[in-house]
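Work Package 4 report. The design task specified in the project plan requires that, given a folded chain encoded as C-alpha cells, an amino acid be chosen for each position. We show below one input record used in the internal validation round.
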C-alpha cells in the first residue's frame, strides 16, 4: 500500500468547493433577510425538511428495500441510477410539498425562497462543505508525510480501512474536484427552482409545475448517479447544468401564472416587498 501525494490542483478544487458550498447559502440568507419579507421559521423548516427527507427517511427506506429485495439489483448501474433517483424524488419532493402545503403557515413566494435556502443550504454544508474540510486536512497530512508515518503504527484491518479511505484523494482526477464546486452551485439553483415550482403548483393547481419538478429532479439525480459510476464527472456536470438551466427558464417563464392567481390587493403588497430596499 503506497501513499501518494495529492495534486495541488485537487486541493484547490476542494477549497473552491468548500467556499462555494458555504458561501452561496450564506449569500442567499443575507439577500433574503435584507431584500425580502421573510420569517426565520421558513429557513428552519427548510433545513429540517431536508434532514428528515435525505438523512432520516431515505436511509431508512434504502435499508428496508435492500434488506428485503437484496443488494444484487444495485450491481446494474442503470437500475441503481433509476432507484436512487426515484427515492430522492419521492422523499424530497414529497416532504417539500407537505411542508409548503401544510406545515409552513401563510407561505408566499418570498418565504418559499427562504425555505429553499434552508433546504439546499443544509444539504450543501453537510454533503459538500464539511467533507471538504476532512479532505483538505488529510491531503495536507499526506503531502507532508505525516499520514504515512501514522499509518506505520496501524495493524490490519485498520491499516487497509485507512488506506482505502484516503486513496480516492490521489486517485480521483483533479478535474473532478474542480467540477464539484460548480456542480454544487447548480444543485443549489436546482433546489430553489424545485421549491418554487412546488409552491406554484400549490397556489395554482396546475400539474405542469409539479410534473416539471419531478422530471427535473429525477433527471439530475439519475444522470449524476449513472455518469458518476461511469467515471465521467464532466458530462455529469454538463447534464446537471442543462437540466438546471431548463428549470430556471421554465420557472421564470411560468411565474406569471402564479402572479395572475394573486388578488390585486395582495399583488400590490407583493410588488412592494420585491422592490423594497
Amino acid at each position: 500500500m503506497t501513499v501518494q501525494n495529492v495534486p495541488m490542483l485537487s486541493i484547490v478544487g476542494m477549497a473552491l468547493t468548500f467556499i462555494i458550498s458555504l458561501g452561496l447559502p450564506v449569500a442567499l440568507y443575507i439577500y433574503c433577510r435584507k431584500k425580502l419579507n421573510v420569517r426565520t421559521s421558513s429557513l428552519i423548516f427548510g433545513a429540517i425538511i431536508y434532514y428528515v427527507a435525505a438523512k432520516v427517511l431515505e436511509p431508512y427506506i434504502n435499508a428496508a428495500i435492500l434488506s428485503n429485495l437484496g443488494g444484487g439489483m444495485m450491481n446494474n448501474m442503470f437500475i441503481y441510477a433509476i432507484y436512487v433517483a426515484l427515492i430522492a424524488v419521492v422523499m424530497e419532493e414529497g416532504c417539500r410539498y407537505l411542508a409548503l402545503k401544510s406545515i409552513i403557515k401563510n407561505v408566499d413566494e418570498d418565504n418559499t425562497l427562504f425555505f429553499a435556502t434552508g433546504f439546499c443550504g443544509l444539504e450543501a454544508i453537510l454533503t459538500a462543505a464539511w467533507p471538504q474540510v476532512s479532505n483538505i486536512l488529510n491531503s495536507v497530512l499526506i503531502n507532508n508525510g505525516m499520514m504515512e508515518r501514522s499509518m506505520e503504527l496501524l495493524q490490519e484491518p485498520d491499516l487497509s480501512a485507512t488506506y482505502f479511505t484516503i486513496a480516492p484523494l490521489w486517485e480521483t482526477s483533479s478535474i473532478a474536484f474542480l467540477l464539484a464546486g460548480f456542480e454544487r452551485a447548480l444543485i443549489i439553483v436546482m433546489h430553489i427552482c424545485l421549491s418554487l415550482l412546488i409552491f406554484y403548483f400549490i397556489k395554482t393547481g396546475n400539474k405542469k409545475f409539479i410534473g416539471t419538478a419531478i422530471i427535473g429532479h429525477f433527471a439530475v439525480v439519475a444522470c449524476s448517479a449513472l455518469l458518476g459510476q461511469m467515471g465521467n464527472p464532466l458530462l455529469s456536470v454538463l447534464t446537471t447544468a442543462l437540466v438546471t438551466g431548463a428549470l430556471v427558464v421554465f420557472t421564470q417563464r411560468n411565474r406569471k401564472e402564479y402572479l395572475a392567481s394573486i388578488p390585486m390587493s395582495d399583488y400590490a403588497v407583493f410588488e412592494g416587498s420585491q422592490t423594497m430596499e
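Residues 9 and 174 are 6 Å apart (CA to CA). Validation will be extended to a larger panel in the next phase.
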